[in-house]
Amino acid sequence: MSLAIRLRQLLFAIVKAPAPNYGRVMDKNQLQNLFQAFTDKGFTGASGFKIRTFEEGRVALEVKPKEELTQFLGYVHAGVVTGLADHAAGAAYASVLPEGKACMTIELKINFLKPAEGDMLVAEADVVSAGGTIGVIQSNVYGETGDTRVLVATSLVTLRSVKVG
Q1: Intervals of the chain under pLDDT 50
Q2: 95 CB burial (10 A radius; 0-12, 13-18, 19+)
Q3: Domains, the chain, ranges and CATH?
Q4: pTM here?
């Protein structure tokens, strides 16, 4: 089964909506729109997380810093940076899971290397190990301003697959 079909079914199961059976694979834009609809809910939606790229085993999310996301010194809050790294990791692992499976974080280790600032923060998550029950994902967060890119945090996220639907 293709990645697009697996992800469509997974996301519709998570949001508890019937998955349409089009009998064809969604194109990249349709798939990205579906993931963005999922990302627009709750904390990730309130923070403004957006999908930058989505591939099997690799996902990049971005968020434009705004005042509501900063801490007392004006940098993006560590909780937002952690959430961005975690959400990207979950999407990367979900992209390689079989039909009917989703995932939940069971451990997250993050190192903050520099203050989180820039015109855009970007989390790039890559699957390191994708077992049937446990996945390990490396997720790095960068601050971008123009052509300048700075690594602000690096994390290792362990997720457990769970049955949905």
Answers
A1: 15-27
A2: buried
A3: 3-163 (3.10.129.10)
A4: 0.81
